[in-house]
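This part of the workshop introduces the protein records we will be handling. An example says more than a description, so a record of this kind follows.
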Amino acid sequence: MSTLRKDLTVSGLSMIAIGSCIGSGIFLTPSSIAKSLPHHGLILMAWILGGIVSFCGAMVFSELSTRYPNSGGVYVYLREAYGNLAGFLYGWVILLIINTGALAALSVALADYMSFFIEFSHRGKMIFSVSVVVVLTFVNVLGVNISQIFAQVFTSLKLLALLALILLGLFFLNVDKVEWSAFDAIPSEISPLQAFLLAFVGVFWSFGGWHHTTYLSGETKNPQRTLPRAMLIGTAVVTLVYVLTNMAYMNMLPLDEIAASNKVAGDALNVVISNGGKLITLVIAISIFGTIGIYTMTAPRIYHAMAKDGVFFKKLSVIHPKFRTPHYAMLIQMVWAVVLILLWGSFHKIITFVTFMDIVFMALAAMSIFVFRKRSDDKPLFVTPWYPIIPIFYVLVTVAFVFNTLFSLPVETVAGLVILLLGIPCYMYFK
């Protein structure tokens, strides 16, 4: 019987953590964040806070990954803490909403950027988006080593592109353009806390993905040491890059133009380089393409783990005899991502839908650390520092985000909750 191949290293997994986060978010969400927080200092505060929250989450998940270094990651933590139903529901929403929704959003965003170079009809845009997901799924079927090389190449390209953008932005630094006074710019009808939490839809979307490394535990060399290093390196690098990139945007564009722009990076670079918008657009397209490649690889390990546990289609537990990848799990994800592309087709609708459900389960997974600590006094290889302050902080921020999104954007969140509840009878069927 074929088994998963353990080929992932610290460098490869770190690049997967970074590449999972840096996709479309830093290029597309600054406009929505600037609308919620129309102030330079507050925008940077939101990104810095997002980085701090993500790093705290990475510390919590690092301990969880050393306690349960099994393929499936977050699914395993939920199953071990709360039972099979909780684990199943996470895999269910990962397949039907979170990962496939992210793939749909990213592929639609990629088509938007490629429209700089290729004139698409609406139908052509959908065909292009679908083709990208299909092609990259089959690339990842070819083996985890191929996936690791793919992640390293495309993550390196996007980091070099962002470094060039940051250097240009700092070169054109004009401190007089940037205002740092506090909350006077937030509309009076909403509170500063509400404004921050609304802005966090874009921030959390942009930081989301570092935990994808846990899904690959079963294919990682020495996972109890490798996973914590990869997650902590990944979140630290992403935070630094995001803060510096936003400073670059602010130096090149007035805040009202950032808020109004759907392609902030391209518009910013156009200010300082002739045809700079087209250049950065190509680089962004490469960045998004790389992230789609990572997302088509990671989450199928969850469906594979569910099938092995007997709570999902048995066929998904099958490993390809030659490539040693869960190819059937990858194919079912591909099919549903295509359905979402054709049904939704709007980037901003999709990211609210996806981010809300993702953060719900991230909060639940983080809370599992309290369950495991209570159950056992055993010390894993990585222990979350300043326990319980770090986990409590992470859980409080994520829960506040969940409730604010539920009340502020009810249509998308209710749609997610309905799909979640539909998972309960499906779990009963599989059991």
